[in-house]
Amino acid sequence: MSCIFCKIASKEVPSDIVYETDTVVAFRDLNPQAPVHILVIPRKHVSGIHEADGGTGLEELMLSAAEVARREEIEDAGYRLVINCGRQGGQTVDHLHVHVLGGRAMSWPPG
Ligand code: 5GP
Ligand code: ZN
Q1: What is the domain range of residue 15?
Q2: Residue 21 maps to which CATH number?
Q3: What is the CA angle 66-31-110, rounded to 5?
Q4: Does the pLDDT value for residue 1 go beyond 80?
Q5: Which SS3 state, helix, strand or coil, does residue 17 take?
Q6: Which of 5, 19, 65, 70 could pair covalently with 26 via S-S, beta carbons 3.0-4.6 A apart?
Q7: What is the pLDDT of residues 47-75, one digit of tens each?
């Protein structure tokens, strides 16, 4: 398995992990787009939301993203959760991940 996020989840590749459970791992993005930029992934490889199903653990993934925001103390100010899907959606790593972005005001519409 050559997936970089699988390697991060298994700690074969180092990353700054901020939160983990039996089924999810959250780590700081290598190229942060905001003061807080964390990626939350399922441990089990799923290439994207289009491949997710009832066994993927989407509820825990999203609740973990909210927990990460709470721990990073961006909950009160507000933050953004993003899932880029496919090429035009801006997905560059084909392992499902939720971006947790905060620490600054977010603009809308996104670029
Ligand atoms: P996407 O564009 O697929 O939604 O997001 C992929 C994200 O993964 C990007 O924000 C990118 O900076 C981040 N990323 C890519 N490779 C690595 C890595 O090896 N380590 C970490 N921590 N982040 C990565
Ligand atoms: Zn993977």
Answers
A1: 4-102
A2: 3.30.428.10
A3: 65
A4: no
A5: strand
A6: 19
A7: 999 999 999 999 999 999 999 999 999 99
The pLDDT value recorded for residue 111 is: 87
Amino acid letter, 75: E
Write the pLDDT tens digit of every residue in 11-46: 999 999 999 999 999 999 999 999 999 999 999 999
| Radius of gyration from C-alpha coordinates of the chain | 13
- Choice from 10, 16, 29, 82 to test ligand 1 binding pocket (greatest atom count within 8 A of CB): 29
CA 42 – ligand 2 centroid, Å: 9
Number of the ligand 1 atom closest to the C-alpha atom of 90: 2
Nearest CA to ligand 1 atom 24: 30
Is the distance from the beta carbon of residue 15 to the nearest atom of ligand 1 less than 6 Å?
Answer: yes
- pTM comes to 0.98
In a domain, 109, yes or no: no
Residue 75 lies in a domain: yes
Q: Is residue 98 part of a domain?
A: yes
| Cα 96 to averaged position of ligand 2 atoms, centre (Å) | 8
